[in-house]
TrEMBL record, chains A, B:
<dbReference type="InterPro" id="IPR033966">
    <property type="entry name" value="RuBisCO"/>
</dbReference>
<protein>
    <submittedName>
        <fullName>Ribulose-bisphosphate carboxylase large chain</fullName>
    </submittedName>
</protein>
<dbReference type="InterPro" id="IPR036422">
    <property type="entry name" value="RuBisCO_lsu_N_sf"/>
</dbReference>
<dbReference type="GO" id="GO:0015977">
    <property type="term" value="P:carbon fixation"/>
</dbReference>
<dbReference type="InterPro" id="IPR000685">
    <property type="entry name" value="RuBisCO_lsu_C"/>
</dbReference>
<feature type="domain" description="Ribulose bisphosphate carboxylase large subunit C-terminal">
    <location>
        <begin position="123"/>
        <end position="288"/>
    </location>
</feature>
<dbReference type="Pfam" id="PF00016">
    <property type="entry name" value="RuBisCO_large"/>
</dbReference>
<dbReference type="GO" id="GO:0000287">
    <property type="term" value="F:magnesium ion binding"/>
</dbReference>
<dbReference type="InterPro" id="IPR036376">
    <property type="entry name" value="RuBisCO_lsu_C_sf"/>
</dbReference>
<dbReference type="GO" id="GO:0016984">
    <property type="term" value="F:ribulose-bisphosphate carboxylase activity"/>
</dbReference>
Amino acid sequence: MAERFTVTYFVRAADQAEAKARALDIALEQTVEIPRSVVPKGYVEDEILGRLEDMQNDPEGRAGYLATISYSEDDVGGDFLQFLNIVFGNSSIKPGLKVEDIGLSPGLLALCKGPRHGIAGLRARAGIGEEPLLMSAIKPVGLPTVALARLARDFALGGMHYVKDDHGLVDQKPAPFGERLKACVEAVGEANAKSGGRTSFVPNITGPATAIIERARQAQECGAGGVMLAPALAGYDVVRALAADPDFTLPIVSHPAFSGANVVSPDCGFSHRTFYGTLHRLMGADAVIYPNFGGRFGFTREECLSIAAACAVNMGGRKAIVPAPGGGMTVARVPEMRDAYGNDVMYLIGGALLQESRLTDACRRLVAAVHA
Amino acid sequence: MAERFTVTYFVRAADQAEAKARALDIALEQTVEIPRSVVPKGYVEDEILGRLEDMQNDPEGRAGYLATISYSEDDVGGDFLQFLNIVFGNSSIKPGLKVEDIGLSPGLLALCKGPRHGIAGLRARAGIGEEPLLMSAIKPVGLPTVALARLARDFALGGMHYVKDDHGLVDQKPAPFGERLKACVEAVGEANAKSGGRTSFVPNITGPATAIIERARQAQECGAGGVMLAPALAGYDVVRALAADPDFTLPIVSHPAFSGANVVSPDCGFSHRTFYGTLHRLMGADAVIYPNFGGRFGFTREECLSIAAACAVNMGGRKAIVPAPGGGMTVARVPEMRDAYGNDVMYLIGGALLQESRLTDACRRLVAAVHA
C-alpha cells in the first residue's frame, strides 16, 4: 500500500449524519467519481478510494463539522495539479465545503521540493540578517520604460531590498517586457553602485502560456534578482516547475491576482493558511504576497497571521518562506505590522510611497521605521 | 485613443453612494493600483485608468448595484492573462464584488480567436447533423490500461460520439498517459471499424506545466479526436495558446475541476454565464463541461441555461461552442434535459452507465433516448 496524505474539510451540515454523508461523498467525488456500488473491489476500493478518517465538531463554531479524508499517493501520479485535483477538484463546485488543512505525506514532499531560497535566501541576496525584508513595486501601467526605470532606481536608492513590477505590467507598448527588464535591472544596478546597496529587480513574468518560462530565463540572463507570477492566472504548476528547474536559480514571488474567490467566501475555497501558506510553499514560492489586514482588503489579523505561521511551520524540512503582506500599507502602520509579524516578514509598500514628493527620502523613512 | 472593453460588476452596497465609491475603487484597483491623487495626468489618467460608465439598480434584487467600468485595450497588451487580471485580478479578493458580464471590443476579439471547431466542428467530426452530442468518460482512476481501453471500446460500440478520460486520469502507474492514449485510441478505432461509427477518444492532458503542450501534440499524433484540460488548474492561457497554435488542430474540451470557488458564492467570483460561457469561448474551448442542474451539484436550471446561452450568443463572429452538462446525469433525465437545452448540447453521462451490467446496451438506450 502507498502512503496516504490527508485533507481536512469544513463540511456545512445540519447534523453529524448529514456531515458524514457529505464527507463520504467527497471521498468518492475526489477519487473514483462513480457511484459507490460500482467501485471495483481490490486495488481501486482499497487504495484509490478516499477514506474518511475522522469527524469532529467545528472548533470555530460554524454550522458544520470537520471531516478528514485520506488519499493515496498512487492517485497523485507524480503530478502536482492532480494533487490539487484530488484535494478539491470537483468538490470545489459544491457549496458549503472548504479545505481547512492538508496533512502531507512522504511522496508529496518528494514531489514538491519546496522553495529553493526561502526567507533565508531572500535575506542573503539582500545582504541582511534576521531583519524584515522590504519590497516595493514600480507602477502604474501606462508609464514609459524610462519613467518606470527611474522609479526602480529611486526605490533602490531608498533602500528597498526588492523592487518588483506592478502585477499589471506585462508587455504593453509603453514599456515592453524585455526593454523594461533591461532598463530596470540597469537602473537598480546603478543605484546599488552608488549606494553600496544590494537591491534586486523582480520582473512580472505572468504572461502567455508559451512565454512564461522563456521570460523567467530572460530575467535570469539579464541579471534580475527574482521573478513574480500569479499562480491563479498562470496555472498552479508553473511555480513548481520553475523551482524544480536546475537551470533556473532565481527566487520566485507569488502574486494573489485572480485568487480571491478561493479564500474570501466562508462557504467555499480554502482556508487562508492553506491556500497562501501551505500550497504556495509546496509549489516553491519564496515569498507570497497577500492583502494585509487593515488595508484595502478584508482579511482579518488572524487570517493574516495564520498565513505567516503556515509559511514557517515545520514542513518536512522544506524551507520557510516569507509572507509579503501588502495592499494599501503605509509607513504609519509599521509598528502595528511589526507587532503582528515580528521580523519574518516582507513589507510590501508601494502606492503610499508614490504619494510622497521625494520618493527616495520616503523609502529611507520607511526603512528606518521598519528597522527601528 | 484605443478601443475600450467593459466589465459589469455586481457591487454589494447599502446605497448608491457606497456603490459608486466601490466602483471607482475598482476602476483604480484594476488598472493603476495607486491612490487617485497620484495618477499621472495625460495618457495614464485618460487612457489606462478604468472609467465608470454606468450604474444601475440590481435587476435581480440583490443588496447592491451593477457598475459598468470600461478599460483600455492598451492595458491588455495582447495578453489574455492580463485581460483576466484587468477584469478581476485584485478585486477578486474583495468580498461583495462579482463579475456579471463582459462587453468585448475589437482588440479583445483579435486577441481571442475563439474556438477552432465549435459545436459545428464537433458534430462534423462525429458525423451527425444538428442533433445533441453524447460524451462519456472512462474511469475510475486505478484501473489498468486494458480495463480503461475496454470501457472506451464499449462506449464507442454503444454510440457515444466522444469518449474522454476521467479528469483524474493523468500519468498514474496503472495506466500511464502514453500507454492509455494509445490503447484507447486503438480500442475506439476497432469499435468504429466494427460499428461504422465515428467515435473520438479525448485524453486528459491536464498535467505538469512543462508537459501539457507536449501531451496535446502526442494526442494529435496518436489519432485522438480531442483533448481535455482543466483551465482553473493548468492556467487560463493554455487553451487559448492551443486553440491558436497552427500546428494543433484537435477540438478542446474544458473541465471545471478546481473552478468552483469562482462561481458558487453569491458574494465573489463570476456569474455562471460569464465564467463557463464567455471566458471559455474566448479562450477557445470547443466544449465546456459544467455540473448540470439537479445532479450532484448545486447549479440552478437558470444558471445552466445562462451558460448554454453564452455558448451560442453572437460574439463577434466567434463560433458557438457546446455546453456539456454532467455530474450525476442519468438516462431518466434525458427528457428534462432535452426540454431545457434543445439540440445544442453535449450529454455527458458516465457513472450512471457504469452501473448497468451491459455497458454497450446501456449506451444504446441512452443514445435512443437522446434521439427520441
